[in-house]
Amino acid sequence: QEIEEELKDREPGLWTFAADFSTGVIASDNVNSVSSTRFKESSGVREAFNSPKFDRTLSGSMGLSASRPVGEESSLLINLSHTSSEQYFETDDDYQSYGFTLGLDTVFLGQSISPYFIVNKSDYQTDADSFSKMYGLGGFFSVGERNSFSYGLSYSNSKGNDNLSDATANETNSSGHSISLGHDFIFNELITTSISLGYSDTDARVDAGNDYENYDFGLSINFAFPWAFIAVSNSMSFNDYKKADTSVNSTIRSDFTNTFDISLTKAIGDIFPTIDPNRSLFINLSYEKLFSEANIINYDYIADSLSLSFSKSLRLN
What single string gives the DSSP state of each residue in 68-125? Predict the structure, then answer.
């Protein structure tokens, strides 16, 4: 009792520590983006596209974060993360990823502003290791009680090491910048909508087949049912490449993709209160269908995937 009274009299610590865990599985019916015709072009010659289509990918991630207030309207975030991924039949998606994030949340001229810096390293089992850095700024502001607007700017730089299994990995070393705009609207306590616009420009070490501009548009409708949170979204993406990849053919590649996604999130504690009394363990189920159309048959394909994952957050102090 004396110890409890002493703890009550202490000032709360400035730092807050938390841990996040997640694990899941994704089943895809076209993991290698095999064209719908089962053919592809290589150096201008049409040949069979015989890569396997169906596969499962297991993944798990862990994150440790520390945050503390800075002044009256700001807070600092430090995050360390690790992700492991393993493909069942093939090894293309077998990798270990390590990340570091430093972010600041503050208020400026009535807007919430969040500058950040991210470093990531990915160790692939059958490919070259890759490294990336990203600097960015995100922000949002509200208009009335129902509308909020968001925006983002970022610059990234990535590179891959050459190794014995991939002597051309550094050809995709690239830098890029992007800009995004978003709008969220609250219809009522049950329904909200989100609209997003995005543009990015990527410049690679070897231009052919790697330099491109991307334009995105997305629409999402969210339902906050008492029994679950459901999000239905549809996004369109246009990719315009700058130079032809002569290892495929002499045509400059241009793509359009349309992605439909529906996801459901539920707290386990709503079903089994004794297992998750704090409702901090979530089950996530999602289905995605992607249609890709291009002026080169290699990139005309349809892919479906179904994923199931569990995530949990813990405060450590």
Answer: EEETTTEEEEEEEEEEEEEESS-STT-EEEEEEEEEEEEEETTEEEEEEEEEEEEEES
The answer to whether 208 and 244 are in contact (CB under 8 A) is: yes
Cα separation, 261 vs 305, whole angstroms: 10
| Cβ-based neighbour number of residue 6 at 10 Å | 9
Kindly report the backbone phi and psi dihedral angles of residue 29, in degrees, each rounded to the nearest multiple of 5, phi listed first: -90, 0
CA-based angle 231:234:237, to the nearest 5?
140
pTM given for the model: 0.86
Residue 55 to residue 258: CA distance in whole angstroms: 22
What's the pLDDT score for residue 164? 56
CA distances from 133 to 157, 176, 177, 179, 213 (A): 5, 11, 12, 17, 20
Q: Which regions of the chain are under pLDDT 70?
A: 1-13, 162-169
Residue 144: predicted pLDDT: 92
Token pair of 32, please?
Answer: 């290698």
Do the beta carbons of residue 83 and residue 59 sit within 8 Å?
Answer: yes
pLDDT of residue 171: 79
d(CA 219, CA 217): 7
Q: ∠ CA(101), CA(153), CA(93), 5° rounding?
A: 55
Q: Taking the CB of residue 43, how many other CB atoms lie within 10 A of it?
A: 10
- DSSP 8-state symbol, 31: T
- CA distance readout (Å), 181 to 140, 146, 160: 10, 17, 30
Task: Tally Cβ neighbours within 10 Å of residue 41.
Answer: 17
- What is the per-residue pLDDT for 277? 87
Q: Which residues contact 3 (CB under 8 A, 6 or more apart)?
A: none
User: Which pLDDT score, from 0 to 100, does residue 127 have?
Assistant: 75
Write out the two tokens for 169: 């990995």
The confidence score (pLDDT) of residue 12 equals: 58
Q: Which amino acid is at 178?
A: S
